[in-house]
Write a structure and sequence with these properties.
mainly alpha
Length: about 150
């Protein structure tokens, strides 16, 4: 059940991010169509509404651009490439930076899925460690305990 939770929560978080972006695009389209109908093609007659539309589109583009830039900057950590400073993986780093650029808007979903994978893996390792310590406690024989008491 924990693994299901680790899987669903990042998916829901990424879905909310993409739904928010789609909502903003739809809302800016509504503002644009309303401004176009209101102004009969001359949108500069209504400067407040025109700049509202411009800033809405600018905010959408800025958030997508920042997502791409963050993906490129952190691509080594995201794709787990060349963590060692002595590693000469120049071409693989360039390839993964290019992949991060091309897949930039989708990288938050990949990062959240990666987080879910590592949380599930950590949970499995914790359970194994707990069962191993229980195994060691059960493995001690009563003869060992009596020898320890002497």
């Amino acid at each position: 059940i924990k693994t299901l939770g680790f899987t669903l929560l990042p998916f829901i978080g990424a879905s909310f991010l993409y739904f928010e972006t789609i909502k903003n695009v739809v809302y800016s389209n509504i503002v644009y169509r309303a401004l176009e109908d209101l102004s009969d093609g001359d949108m500069m007659k209504y400067p407040f509404e025109m700049f509202l539309f411009i800033f809405m589109v600018g905010a959408i583009l800025a958030s997508q651009l920042l997502c791409v830039l963050y993906s490129i900057y952190y691509s080594d950590d995201i794709f787990e490439v060349s963590h060692d400073k002595t590693c000469n993986a120049k071409y693989s780093r360039i390839f993964f930076k290019l992949m991060a650029f091309l897949l930039g808007p989708f990288m938050p979903c990949y990062v959240l899925a990666n987080k879910a994978y590592y949380q599930a893996r950590l949970d499995i390792l914790r359970r194994q460690l707990e069962s191993y310590s229980n195994f060691l406690e059960d493995d001690r024989s009563p003869a060992q305990e009596t020898n320890k008491d002497k």
